[in-house]
Amino acid sequence: MTNTMQWRTAMGACALAFMLSVTTLQAARAHDTSAGPNGGQVIEVKGHHVELTTTGKDLTLHLTDEAHAAIASQGASGRAVILEGSKQATAALTPAAPNKLVAHLDAPLAAGARVVVTAKLADGHEIVVRFVIK
What we know:
Largest sheet: 8 strands, antiparallel
Order of helices and strands: HEEEEEEEE
Oligomer: single chain
CATH topology of the largest domain: Immunoglobulin-like
Helix content: 10-25%
Structural class: alpha+beta
Distance between the termini: 52 Å
């Protein structure tokens, strides 16, 4: 391989890595507010507000738009990957009226647990959000 080809390959790899990092940052571009209207953490992603609340073994995502109006959850689906220490679990998220996605867990989540949610909303948007349980 010539030096020119090696340089082009290296530059292409750098450009790809940069584009992926920018895309990841935009997809995960989020602001974390102190507490949402339901007392949970709120992440903003792709013009949607996603609030996570937990009650016992139930995990609930409350979906609203930029104006904080409820987004219908009928037709939405997703999954939550829960990482607690060295343990990993996956829970299916199902719609609950009017604007919730819910999952029933095997056990309550401990502080420090990480929850990564991937979902396709009823409006067709696909979102990925990450929470750390406080």
